[in-house]
Amino acid sequence: MLTLFSTPPTAIEAMTWAIAFAVVQQTLELLALRSAMADQGVWAWPILRREFAGGSRLQQAVTDGLLRYPNILGVLVIRLGAALLVFVAPPLPCLLIMLATTLLISIRWRGTFNGGSDSMTMIILSALTIAAAFGDCNPMVGLACVWYVALAAVNSYALAGFAKLRESTWRSGAALGVFVNTSVHGPLARGRSVLGRRVPARVISWVVLALECGFPLVLVDPAWCYGFITLALAFHIANAYVFGLDRFLFVWVATYPALLCCSGSGLPGAG
Question: N or C: which end of the chain has fewer CB within 10 A?
Answer without folding.
Answer: C
